[in-house]
């Protein structure tokens, strides 16, 4: 089932998400819905808060990026539950990022190049892994969502001022989008 994606500045995007356990209600179906929603929206990642569930869960399939200039993304498809990035290192770099909760907006975001992360997969098996480059960046972006951090929070104060009108358009639903969304400034859903 396709889930509506919430647009900035929906309140759920600002909450620190809660951990879940293997008994989380209908987890298997929720994961199926998350994957379907992400693919329908042409995303490479989707976090539960983006579909109005404040839980520490996100999915990533970076395979599409391998066709461009990131061969390391080939076949990278994972579920992250109760993730914790416990170390960031390496050089900081700027990369242009987009976000399904900010349709049509792409901005340069500064992030560390290497991360160490602990998480559970969809079978609640524990993992402790190191990622770098584009994979680290995608994980950090989705991780921000479960920490209540939005793309707008990563922008400089000047950039926020320059984008004020565009952010208002997103909130009000004055954007072209091909997937189901909930806009905070609009009383009805757009499909």
Task: Write a structural description.
- With 191 residues, the protein is α+β, with helices and mostly antiparallel strands.
- The chain has a single domain (5-182), classed as Peptide Deformylase (Alpha-Beta Complex).
- It has five helices and seven strands, in the order βαββαβββαααβ.
- The longest helix is centred in the N-terminal third of the chain and has 14 residues, at 27-40.
- The protein is globular and about 45 Å long.
- It starts with a strand and ends in a 9-residue tail after the last strand.
- 29% of the residues are buried.
- The mean pLDDT is 95.
List keywords for this structure.
single chain, 191 residues, alpha+beta, Peptide Deformylase, five-stranded antiparallel beta sheet, two-stranded parallel sheet, 5 helices, 25% helix, 29% strand
Briefly, what is this?
25% of the residues lie in helices and 29% in strands.
Layout of secondary structure:
Blueprint: E1 5-6, H1 27-40, E2 45-47, E3 57-61, H2 63-66, E4 77-98, E5 106-120, E6 126-132, H3 133-146, H4 157-162, H5 164-172, E7 181-182
The largest sheet, given as strand count, sense and whether it forms a barrel, is: 5 strands, antiparallel
Major sheet strand order: 2-3-4-5-6
Shape: globular
How many helical stretches? 5
Question: Helix and strand succession?
Answer: EHEEHEEEHHHE
Rg from Cα: 16 Å
Quickly give the CATH architecture: Alpha-Beta Complex
Strand fraction band?
Answer: 25-35%
In CATH, what is the class?
Alpha Beta
Tell me the name of the CATH homologous superfamily: Peptide deformylase
Number of domains: 1
């Amino acid at each position: 089932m396709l889930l509506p994606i919430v647009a900035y500045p929906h309140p759920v995007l600002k909450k620190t998400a809660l951990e879940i356990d293997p008994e989380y209600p209908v987890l298997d179906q929720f994961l199926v819905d998350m994957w379907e929603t992400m693919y329908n929206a042409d995303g490479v990642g989707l976090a539960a808060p983006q579909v109005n569930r404040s839980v520490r869960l996100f999915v990533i399939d970076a395979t599409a990026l391998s066709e461009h200039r990131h061969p390391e993304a080939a076949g990278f498809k994972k579920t992250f539950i109760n993730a914790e990035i416990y170390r960031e290192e390496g050089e900081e770099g700027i990369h242009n990022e987009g976000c399904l909760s900010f349709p049509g907006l792409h901005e340069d975001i500064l992030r560390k190049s290497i991360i160490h992360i602990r998480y559970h997969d969809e079978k609640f098996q524990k993992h402790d892994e190191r990622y770098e480059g584009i994979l680290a960046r995608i994980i950090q972006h989705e991780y921000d969502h479960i920490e209540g951090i939005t793309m707008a929070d990563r922008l400089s104060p000047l950039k926020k001022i320059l984008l004020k009108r565009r952010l208002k358009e997103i909130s009000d639903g004055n954007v072209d989008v091909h997937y189901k969304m909930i806009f905070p400034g609009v009383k009805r859903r757009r499909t």
